[in-house]
Here is the input.
Amino acid sequence: MAHYAFLNENNVVTEVIVGKDEGEDGIDWEVQYAAIRGQVCKRTSYNTQGNVHLTDGTPFRKNYAGIGYTYREDLDAFVPPQPFASWVLNETTGLWDAPVPMPEEGGWTWNEDQQQWTEVVSA
Here is the structure.
């Protein structure tokens, strides 16, 4: 089984469905589903995140598509929404990077006003 994302006129994902495997029955299912729906359709890999395939397969379109993600044709990638204005798109992973790396230990949240990570303290 394969997964497919439908895109609006701005290449934003509006829906993700489970469909037939690409090439099954000798059909290009991206084209077939697009024709049925009258909407651009792109296959997406459930097992791809950050341009890494989670089961050691070949990564496909950098990230599994989610509603609100944008399909970037220039990168052939599904990109999640930008979490903060200061974050920069990593074109290799298709994910957004903070301007300052997150510390490895503890729990952290991004403070956009101060442009830094703030440690989350448990009560």
